Amino acid sequence: MAQDLQEAVLDDVDVEIEPQARRIERVPPRGAAKRTSMVRAFFSGEAGTKWDIAAGIVLIHAGALLAPFTFTWSAFWLFVWLQAITAMGITLCFHRLLAHRSFQVPKWLEYVLTLIGSLALQGGAIKWVATHRVHHAFSDRPQDPHSPTRGFWWAHMLWLFAYDEVLDHPTKHLRYVPELARDPIHRFLHRTHVLQSVLFGALLYALGGLPWLVWGMFVRLVFVYHGTWFVNSAAHLWGYKTFDTNEGSTNNWWVALLAYGEGWHNNHHAYLHSAAHGLRWWEIDLTYLAIRALGWLKLATRIRLPQGNPAKLPAPDATLARRRLRIPVPSLGV
Questions:
Q1: Domain range holding 256?
Q2: DSSP alpha helices (H): ranges in 102-219?
Q3: 192 falls within a domain
Q4: How far is CA 145 from CA 130, 159, 217, in A?
Q5: Beta strand 325-329 with 3-4: parallel, antiparallel or unpaired?
Q6: For residue 77, is it within any domain?
Q7: pLDDT for 228-254, tens place per residue?
Q8: Into how many domains does the chain fold?
Q9: Which residue from 5, 57, 103, 162 could staple onto 311, CB 3.0 to 4.6 Å apart?
């Protein structure tokens, strides 16, 4: 029998999701006309637009437009290496280590990897992980923060700019990440994640001038952003399904290339605690190879692989938004 995703963890936390459900009701889920209304509501501010986040994303993309005018080979290779390192900070650390505890590393290395992931400027680790755990519990249901059932652009990036009464609350989202919220170093890294990127940008400018700043910050951030965002959008719309998970995740080869193996998303939703997302020989998963490399160096232990039946969400329920459900919080003792 397929295992319910909401029970496919070792530890759970009871949460009340009704406030979030009230927010979701303002966002029509399906249909072109409804999507147009959703976009109009977003830009009119009816959806509680986070204009600071929107402005930051626009400015970063604008900075990336300077790339043709600041090209140097040193700046280009800096971009190549930094995007790989900081993208792995998201895929390996934020996602597979912190969100799913699919392997273990020494605590000092966990903090270093978290700092690297923070330089991708996708928010602090605590909120990133909380959002991701909610996504898995309600994938492509009304409570999913970034489901493409509300349109491709919503799933790809517009969801980032809409205020969420739970996930954007100063304390409510902490119920989804109790182990990170208790850790003072993780709290510090979370609070200072923007400052870390500002200081990093200043360092790049001091070392390599405008070309290093443009390619090492703006071009890198845009590339990593869209690689991550395509997992939320394209990998829930296009591709093939290996497992029946009762939601929209797919395996998408080009997203896997852009996002270092994260595009094997249907595999991941089926075995969410597995460190490996690519499960067939042609499903190349660079993040898993990096985890194995850490294992060879004796820095990663207890590396999880698929076990048992694949996880499967329960059928959509009209009363779901009014029930108390259990959000996955992986055990630290993997």
A1: 3-27+46-329
A2: 107-118, 125-137, 152-156, 178-181, 184-191, 193-213
A3: yes
A4: 11, 7, 27
A5: unpaired
A6: yes
A7: 999 999 999 999 999 999 999 999 999
A8: 1
A9: 5
